[in-house]
Design goal:
Largest sheet: 5 strands, antiparallel
Radius of gyration: 16 Å
Number of strands: 7
Structural class: alpha+beta
Shape: globular
């Protein structure tokens, strides 16, 4: 309808709003740790800041349809991470996105791993 490809629309949006930085990483987790992660509630994680920004939400259910996300998602104004156990490997996956920079993304990932490790060691 617009005559533009999806890539052209994406480039226009990132030119206007900035490019996001996204990466998924895996971290080791034994079956007991994976069980802890899959049963978390927002109250289990007392994280107030992520990569220097105030946490705006801690979710275990999708806001649109209230479906369980099988892990935990933490959001701020400038980024987010989600952590969930793998169903097939002894790892948990950390999905993270920064709306600021690559360095900010790395700090989100570091803070996420620190928070999840603290849950495993509690």
């Amino acid at each position: 309808m617009t005559g533009k490809t999806p890539a052209e629309h994406y480039h226009a949006l990132t030119a206007e709003l900035g490019a996001p930085f996204y990466q998924r990483i895996d971290a080791a987790a034994n079956p007991e740790q994976k069980a802890i992660l899959s049963k978390l509630t927002p109250e289990n994680l007392s994280m107030t800041h992520l990569a220097g920004d105030p946490v705006t939400a801690t979710l275990t259910r999708a806001p649109g349809n209230d479906a369980a996300i099988g892990g935990l998602k933490v959001t701020t104004e400038n980024g987010w991470f989600a952590a969930r156990p793998s169903g097939t490997e002894d790892v948990y996956k950390i999905y993270a996105e920064s709306f600021v920079s690559e360095a900010h993304l790395k700090q989100i990932q570091k803070d996420a791993q620190t928070a999840i490790s603290a849950l495993f060691n509690a």
